[in-house]
Amino acid sequence: MKPKFNEMNKKELRTYVLAHRDDNEAFYAYMDKINAEGNRVTYPPLKSLEDMENYPEFLEKLRGDRPNQESA
After folding, report:
1. Which position has the higher pLDDT, 27 or 46?
2. Are 26 and 10 within 8 A, CB to CB?
3. pTM (2 decimals)?
4. Runs of H (alpha helix) within the chain
5. What angle do CA 11, 15, 27 make, to 5 degrees?
6. Is the pLDDT of residue 68 over 70?
7. pLDDT, greater one: 37 or 62
8. 17-29 CB burial, b ≥16 within 10 A, e <16
9. 39-46, long-range: CB within 8 Å, 24+ apart, which pairs?
10. pLDDT at position 28 over 70
């Protein structure tokens, strides 16, 4: 019996998707939940890794969401 994806919060659903990577239904439910939030920002495709320097706010967000590597 599959879980009820619509009753899961985003974190629970993400955990489920990572544990069941072949479950397309769960993946699409997760993507629907992310899209419903409406706070997603899109960027044009990068031509190189150096292109990332053109998006400092994105880099800052990435660095801010990761645990501090130096304190480990």
Report:
1. 27
2. no
3. 0.58
4. 10-19, 24-37, 56-65
5. 95
6. no
7. 37
8. beeeeebeebbeb
9. none
10. yes
Whole-angstrom distance, CA of residue 14 vs CA of residue 4:
13
Burial of 14 (0-12, 13-18, 19+ CB in 10 A): middle
Torsion of CA 40, 67, 47, 24, to 10 degrees: -50
Q: What is the pLDDT of residue 26?
A: 97
Distance (Å, whole) CA 5 – CA 28:
10
* Alpha carbon of residue 64 to chain centroid: 14
Distances in Å between the Cα of 54 and the Cα atoms of 2, 37, 62, 66 are 43, 26, 14, 20
pLDDT tier for residue 46 given thresholds of 50, 70 and 90 = confident
